[in-house]
Amino acid sequence: MRNLMLIVNPYSGRGLSKNALGAVVSQLGRAGYMVAVYMAGDYTTEELAYQFSKHHEFCVSMGGDGTLSSVVSGLLRSGAVSPAIGHIPSGTANDVAATFNLSKDPGTAAQAIIDGVPTPLDIGIFTGGNAPDDVQRFFTYIAAFGAFTEISYSTPPGAKRTLGHFAYVLSGLSGMSSIAARHMVIELDGNVIEGDYIFGGVINSTSVAGLVKLDPEYVDLSDGLFEVILVKQPLSLVDFVDILTSITNRSYSGDNVQLFHAKNVKFTFDTDVAWTIDGENGGAYSAVEIKNHHEAIRIIV
To answer: What does the alpha-carbon distance between residue 104 and residue 253 come to, in Å, rounded to a whole number?
Structure first.
């Protein structure tokens, strides 16, 4: 009988049903797993993974994108080498679930873990600030700044549970007037770009906030490279329409929306800029360095 650690965030998305949790534990048990349930509360999901994962063969996270991200961070901080992890999505945007085609039905997702195969996945290492006070953390699918990136952590939890994904849309519309361009210098594996941008994202996913999509045939999640999307400041209505069209059509080769591939990325700003990391508040920094941790984990899909 295999020893499985199930780390649960009961507050993600619209809240976790006790019946759903019981059904998942029973299903995994019938498949031959000895399931130990760890519920976020006194410990965060990251702390649970860090403190207790060494006592189990592998982990399963049950929650949203932020829950998976924090569990992965805990596993890697514990020194685990290419750990296997399953995920049962119960969040709002569920970008990781969309990328890997994971079902939002708990029973179906649990069965996918039972039948699935561990698949290598690159992880990002985010360092904000300047030595010796660097802040370093891991992320599973995105680190971003600018337009709409604050939505997922500024939207009230009650609104997320009641309205679901529509809460993000409402928050985005209410923040349209506050979009401001940031002047920056960006280094992409040594190549330097400078300009004014309203959005920048370092991505290893085919879905961002459930709204922006990348072509799955164009994105390799374990190739050691990030997709880096930059959106320039629109100077006219024509520019603004071009940006919306590019995002809608998943075309990122125009003048206003640009897509690059890079292993290591550095950002330098004139002032501190707020970042979102896997949908959570990542802090504000004037200098950020992001590195690709190639095939750091194996996600069961």
So the answer is: 33
